[in-house]
Amino acid sequence: MIPSSFSYQRAGSVEEALDLASEHGDDAKFLAGGHSLLPLMKLRLAAPEVIIDLGGLHDLSYVNDEGPYVAIGALTRHHDVEHSEVLAWQVPLLAYAAGQVGDPQIRHRGTIGGSVVHADPASDLPAVLLALDATLVARGAGGTREIPIGEFFQGLFETVLEPDELLTEIRVPKPASGAWSFQKFTQRARTATWPWSTWAARRCARPRWRPPWPAAPRLPTRPPTPPRAPAPPTTSAPPRPTVSTWPGSWSPGP
Length: 254
Description:
By secondary structure, the chain is α+β, with helices and mostly antiparallel strands. The chain has a domain at 58-173: Uridine Diphospho-n-acetylenolpyruvylglucosamine Reductase, domain 3. Helices cover 22% and strands 25% of the residues. It has helices at 14-24, 37-42, 78-82, 85-90, 92-98, 104-109, 112-118, 124-131, and strands at residues 7-10, 28-31, 50-53, 63-65, 69-73, 135-140, 143-148, 153-155, 158-159, 166-173, 180-188, 193-202. The chain has a five-stranded antiparallel β-sheet with strand order 4-5-10-6-7. Strand 2, helix 2 (37-42) and strand 3 (50-53) form a beta-alpha-beta unit. Helix 5 (92-98) packs antiparallel against helix 8. The longest helix is centred in the first third of the chain and has 11 residues, at 14-24. The protein starts with 6 loop residues before the first strand and ends in a 52-residue tail after the last strand. 36% of the residues are buried. The model is unreliable at 190-194, 204-221 and 241-254 (pLDDT under 50).
């Protein structure tokens, strides 16, 4: 299918990208890897009049150890997240999950920031970042602000970002414990396997399990945003998550 007509602008810096976004407002969309926006445009589910290409902003592609947290540039490719030595050592859950995104072509073009801003509740990385209590850094005409990821998602494909704001960095606290789990559930169509829901969990320093967030405790219903499931009470010996002990009403459905 062919998208509706649009004009193309390639930003040479973050400042230029923000100026273009302020100029065109709701009519503009940022383009990072393109694996989320372009399919929507081809289906006419998104019809921006102006595309602002961020592909040249190489200063937003990095993984840095900042002491208590790891800073990841919003335009860091999934492949680079997967193979980052810093993340493999400090936040292996995120490195592993990045390697489960799509296929090699998607992982070499798609970006972690684009995946988060797309706000698909079935996506892999929003699930993991919720489990890790990440903080998102956005920059706009009014300056820079930090957004806890639990407050970032507002609805299906909707976030708290303003039209003239750009996600620039993701800050992931270093977990105090190394125990974690990542599970993806898919359903097979005629020609492809589509992600249906993704669960991520990590074990906290205090001995308790943090349950998986991005799928609702009840299946097969999928919520419009990646929710955070309620944590069970703190105990001296954390129970292993099972169908019978999981918080809420868990059911595999008919």
